[in-house]
Amino acid sequence: MSCAVCAGTEVCQPATRAPASRLGAEGFGSSRSGVTLQTLAVCRSCGHAWQFPLPSQAELDAIYAQLEDTTYLSEGDNRRRSAHRALDLMEGYTGGSRGDMLNTGCLAGIFLEHAKARGWAVYGIEPSKTLATAARLATNAAIETSSFETTSQDGRSYAAICFWDVLEHVADPAAFVRAASACLAPGGIWALNLPRRDSWVAPILGQR
Ligand SMILES: [Zn+2]
Questions:
Q1: Are 189 and 163 in contact (CB under 8 A)?
Q2: Ligand 1: distance of its center to the CA of 105 in Å?
Q3: By three-state DSSP, how is residue 150 classified?
Q4: How much distance in Å is there from the Cα of 46 to the middle of ligand 1?
Q5: Coil, strand, or helix at residue 42?
Q6: Most exposed residue of 21, 83, 119, 144, measured as fewest CB within 10 angstroms of its CB?
Q7: Coil, helix or strand for 2?
């Protein structure tokens, strides 16, 4: 077993295995539950941690395709506030300019909706059919029902690429980041967030 981030092979395996029977669409997105710090393998070299054992890509693709995140949808007001906070931060880096933006893993498009209202030209990628349809309705933008890894980005470039709560779902995060870099226009930015298992909020969130 080696680390997907640094390729280190000194890995601390969890005492408890993530119960495979509980793996389903309800285990992902804001509505998720059932992943705990006791079910994570940890790389001794870089500290990266991942659920152990990892489901296969085929299993994950099937789950993401049927994801319906009702908790996410019910959190509209908080999501709107979070979107504007993130956009304020991003526009600080772009000097206030707003160009083409790709949000990969855009769920129901709440972030893109607010980005569009502020003048960004928005594009999205979302593997869940239900959520991609909702995103199309919310944004009237080109939303591909797919994943970033399987969508051709030939010749496209963006002023901003956002992946909110995405990188921790990707099998090869290093390759993902390299591919995303290749799609940035000169001076373009990424914006992303990641869970930190050693943050003060992690123990409070528990199984979520
Ligand atoms: Zn590592």
A1: no
A2: 24
A3: helix
A4: 4
A5: strand
A6: 21
A7: coil
For tokens 């992690």, name the residue: 202
Q: Rounded distance, CA 164 to CA 95, Å?
A: 21
**Which domains are present in the chain?**
11-55 (no CATH), 75-193 (3.40.50.150)
171 CA distance to ligand 1 centroid (A)? Answer: 14
pLDDT digit of tens for each residue in the chain (208 aa)? Answer: 889 889 999 999 887 665 554 566 666 655 556 555 567 889 999 999 888 877 788 888 887 877 776 666 677 788 889 999 999 999 999 999 999 999 999 999 999 999 999 999 999 999 999 999 999 999 999 999 998 888 887 788 999 999 998 888 888 888 899 999 999 999 999 999 988 888 898 888 776 6
In 3D space, the residue among 105, 122, 89 whose CA is nearest the CA of residue 30 turns out to be: 105
